[in-house]
Amino acid sequence: MSAPEVLRRLARNWIGLPDVPGARRWAWVAVIDAVGTGMRIPVTVLYLTAVVQLPAASVGVGLGVAALVGTVCAPAAGALIDRLGPRTMVIACFLTAATGYFGYLAIRDWVSFMVVAVVAEIAEHSARPAKQALVAAMVTPEQRVPLMAFQRSVRNIGFGLGGLTSAALVALKAHTGYTMVLAGDAVSFLVAAALVIGIHVTRPAAARAAGAGAGGGGGGKASPRGGFREVLADRRYVALAVLNTLVMTHVTALNVGVPLWIDQHTAASPGLVGVLFAMNTALVVLLQVRLTKGISRVGQTPPVYARAAAAFALAAIVYWAASLAGDALSLVVVLLVVGVLAHTAAELYGAVGEWTVSVNLAPEHLRGRYLSLFSISFSAHQAIGPVLVIVLITQAPGIAWFVLAAVLGVGCLASAWLAHGAEEPAETGTTTEPAAATAAPGTDSKEASSTA
Question: What secondary structure letter does DSSP report for 52?
Answer without folding.
Answer: S
